[in-house]
Structures are given as C-alpha cells and as structure tokens.
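MODEL INPUT / OUTPUT PAIR
PAIR INDEX: 1
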Amino acid sequence: MLKSDRWARITILGGGREVGRAAYLVESTDGNVLLDCGVDVSTGNTPYLELLNVEDLSAVVLSHAHLDHSGMLPYLMRMGYDNPIYMTRPTFDITSLLLEDMLKIAYNEDKDLPFSKGDVKRMKKNTYILEYYEDCEIDPDITLNLFSAGHILGSAMAYLKFSKFSVLYTGDFNYDSTRLLDPADSNIPDVNTVLIEGTYGSKDDKRPSRKKLEQMLTQDILKTLKNGGKVIIPAFAVGRSQEMLLFLKDIFTSLNLEYEIYVDGMIWEASKIYSKYSKYLKDSVWKREGNPFLSKDFIRVRGKKREDCVNIDYPSVIVTTSGMLTGGPILHYLEHLGGDARNSLYLVGYQAEGTLGRKILDGKREIEINGKKIELNLEVKWFHFSSHSDRNALIRFVRDVMNKTDEFVIVHGEERKVLEFAEYIEKRKSVKTPKNVESVRII
C-alpha cells in the first residue's frame, strides 16, 4: 500500500461531550483498536456499538475498572469479539468484581442486561495482563504500552504506536498525589495525538489541596459527631472508599476518637483487592504495619446490622455505596436518617448530571425512596475529593506534554467543561472536541 493511502481516525462511540459510556475506536490501515467500553451508570445508556464491526478489531484496551469504562465489555463477546482484551492485573480483578455485582443486582431487581454470566467468563478468558511499561505487540504494526494513570488501583494510560502515527489515551487520570496513589506518569514518548479526559476542564473546576480538603472534612465530621449526629459518606466502592477509610483511620487515631465507623456495600470486597495489590499503591501505604483497609476499627455492615446501624442512638460515621446515590445501601440510610437535622451527608466524589447526588447537591430536598417521600433535613456538603485531575492539574499535564504531541482530542466531560478546556489548549496547540458518533482524522 502506498504511503499516501494510509489514514487513521478516532471515532467516538461514547463519552463525547459527556461523562459515561466511554468507548473510543482508533481506526487505521494498520488495524483497529477499541479503547474502553463502558456504560452510563446514571442512565444506563450504552455506547453506539452498532457502528462497530468486532471482526475488524485487532484488540481492546481497558484503561481501568470503573463501569463507565468497563461495563459493556462482556457485550462485545455477545457481538462475536474473540481477540485480546488488555489491562493490568488489578484492573482485571476489580472489573470482574464490578461486573459480577452488576449481574447480581440485575437479577435481584428483575432487570435485563445485554450480556450474561457466560459473556463475562468469555471476556475473562480473552483478557491479557500487562504490567506498566511492558512492550506488547498486538498486531504486526501496532504496539501497546501502559503507563500509570494515578486514578484508581491499576488504572492506566494507553500508548498505541502504529506504523506511521501514535496515540496516547489518558483514560481517567489524576496528575496530583493522593493518600493512595502517586500522580499520573508524564514520562511518555513523543505522540501524534493525545486523547485526553476533560471531566474537570471548566474554569470553575479548581479544588483546594488534598491537605486542605481533609482539614475541612475533619472539622465538619467532628462538628456532627459532637452534636450527636451521624455522618454519612457515600463513596465509590473502588478508589474513593479506600481513600476515605485510610483518612478516617488516621484522623481517628491522631485525635484519639472512639466513634464507630461502619462500612457498607461492596467496599469490603474492593478493599481486599487493594490489599492484595498494595505494591501498586504509594510506598507510604503498602509499607504500613497491618492492613489499613480491613482494619478492626471498621465495622462491616450486612443484613440486619444495617437496621442496627440506623437505630442505635449514638453518633457514628457510615461509609457506603453508591457514590452518586444512584442505588445501593445509601438509599436505606437516606430514608431512615435523612430527616434528622443532626446528621450530615458529605459527598466526596463526582456527581453526574441526572443522578440523585447531583440533584441533592443542586438543592433538591424532597426525594422519593421506595415510593415514600423523604424530606431531607440533614446537612449536605460536597468535598472535591476527586480521583480525576482538576482544571489546574489538566493544564499542568498539557503543558508538560505540549512539546511531545501535535494535537489534543478532548473527551469524557460535560459539554461546557470540554469546551472551556479546549479554549485554553487551542491558543497553544491543535485541539478537537468531537461529539458522540463523530470521527476525527489523525493522519
């Protein structure tokens, strides 16, 4: 084939000017690679996979385990995909846990999913494990490297090298240090196109330092506990929950506090995986004595203990799923504790448009749970403990890789945030902000 006949493009199957259902198809004359295949956890919307011919796919790469990036991987098996799926070992274990839980919830709620347990098994069988920085030839003219993304355990940025061009997909990444993880790796090779997330790309998306956020949250937790109330912290089972548990353990130890800390939902199972792969975490975490996530200081809540947790009349802290209040045990706690003004609801993660968490954050105080209207009288606050890069961190990353790349393509962000982020980049470099089902030419 003549060089002039070579071409490449990225087609947005999901995650274009929106958060959720991430799926990005890199097409070229060398071969095609799908980056992530998720579901919108707030709406159930799935990627536009009808535009995808799985027989033309050389490989699928999963950046990390969160369902908005992994939730439709088994459906690819249903579509007939039978080539490799690449990810890190922690991502494999966490994805397996989340997909099995997804199937369980669908069964219990008598809801249909577009894939079965058999599809999940086939997905696992097709998975190939990669370590960070390991060279992997996924086709004669395509190589893959994974770099640490600093988002959750095992999260990765994917560097794809084709015969005539290259792409770096950041996935969800954090360019700041957290209690659990070091910042995303910026020591990447030269690359033609950076496919970058813009979740917090707005000019307003600037957060205080982690230390300042922890100080603020500590003060509010202490205020609620001293007033005899219960602190409810809804958090994502993977990542944010483990950070909150580590934070709570440290402040309770340093301040010699003796209040109960309850842990509900799938957090315990996810924490076991964090313990298993602690070497992927910061040195200061895995070198600790004992297990910081499965400590005897935490009380696991299951079954009847959930009733005890809300009925016992003494102050406590409850860490539970789901992080956006879209389902799970958090609804039980809102139903039974939401009306008491002594209690507090502290949101510590991203609240997507349309979710109950976002509605409450925007001021909604009358909600409905199990057909029952609940008037929320408890204090509601949001603390920007995100595992994504904020506006300042995104700009720092762009500056650090500016001389290594020709262009940026922004995805995975609400439209206003993506466009505001693009305004900064376009003064310095070529930038594109495609919508869903749109394609952008690379070469």
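PAIR INDEX: 2
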Amino acid sequence: MDISSTLAPKSNQLNSDDLIAGPRTITITNVVAGNAEQPVAVHYDGDQGKPWYPSKGMRRVLVAAWGPDASQYIGRGVTLFRNPEVTYGGIQVGGIQISHLSGLDGPLSIALTMNRQKRTPYKVQPLTTPAPAAAAPAPAAKALAVCQAAGLTDLGLAAFCDLVSRGSASTLAQLPAATLARIVEGGISPETVAKCNTPPAPEPEPTAPGDPEDLPAAWS
C-alpha cells in the first residue's frame, strides 16, 4: 500500500510537504495575480485548486529562464522538489524549489540571495521529455512504398491489386495482411510491373447486323 497520498496537508496551495514523497513535474496552465505576500499564483494541470506560489527566489529563476512575460509560461514544464533546508524567520521550515525547466538549451545558473550576507549560485537543469516513438508504418503503407519503388503507376497499382486478389480488391488497403506482408518481403517482379502498367487493349466494338463484314465471304 502506497501511503504517500495520505501525507498531503489540507491547504489551498501547493506546499513543500506535498513533495515529501518526491519531486513533481507540472505543466503550467495559467499564471495569475496572488496576494500581497504571495503575488504570483501558478496554476498547473491537475492542481485541484491548489496553485503553486513561487517564492521570490524561484520567481527570479523563472524570469531568468523564460523572461518576465508570464503568459509565455503556459504549456511549459517545471520540476519542483522539497528543500528541507529552506528557512523562514531563521527557522528551517522547508520550501519548494525548482530543479528542472523546459525550454532550456543547457543548465542555467543564477546567483540567488540566500540570506543578507550570502549570495549563492543556483542551478537549474533542462527538463527533457523523451521523444515519442515513431509509429510503425501500416502494412498497406509499407506495401505502397514497395509498389511505388517498383514503378507501378496509379492505374498499374489498381491492376496489381485486382491481379493478386483475383478481382476481389482494387486497393492495397483491401488486401489481406498476409498478402501485404508477401509484397513487402518479396517485392514485385519487373514482369508483373510491366503487365499491370500496360493498359488492356480495347475490346472491339460489336458491329451492327447486316454490315458487310458480318456476311460470309462468299456473299460479299
């Protein structure tokens, strides 16, 4: 049983204690004005009415990374974590800090004031998401590539489908998967390409009864 969900404090905002179980990556959906003590409220996907109020130091990180126009933050990603060493009023209370941001070309370093006597470099890493795997081409798409590489014309392709299906299919999508697989694996012979690309000879037009060519040779 995972009891981490029972650790969340009741609140109207994201708290550092919400991150005790580990960092969280959010996608920003809106940035609006907060209150006097917390002037910026960052809403994110699935926040359930509990926005993130970044501290002044984290707001400086956001501006350094993305610029001051908060409307440009929408759709971007942030990884937040709980730093137990954050102090307030001289007491370690823990706080939410940023570890990763999307849209960075490389690590970002910014000097933040940790207390009145000390400014410390603060580093943020780029937030990268794995590229989605390219969808494998459909069998019909693979077979089409083979047909086009072999030199089949559009009319030849229809004739080829008619040929291999014995008249039951006029497009590749109508062919059985096993047939498409054989096309991809075995290719198409030049003889088949030539046969399918050659338009059928027009059928002779029927002649009207009584035309001279219809009569027996002895009658003409």
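PAIR 2 NOTE: Strands lie at 24-33, 40-44, 77-83, 87-88, 91-92, 95-101, 108-115, 118-126.
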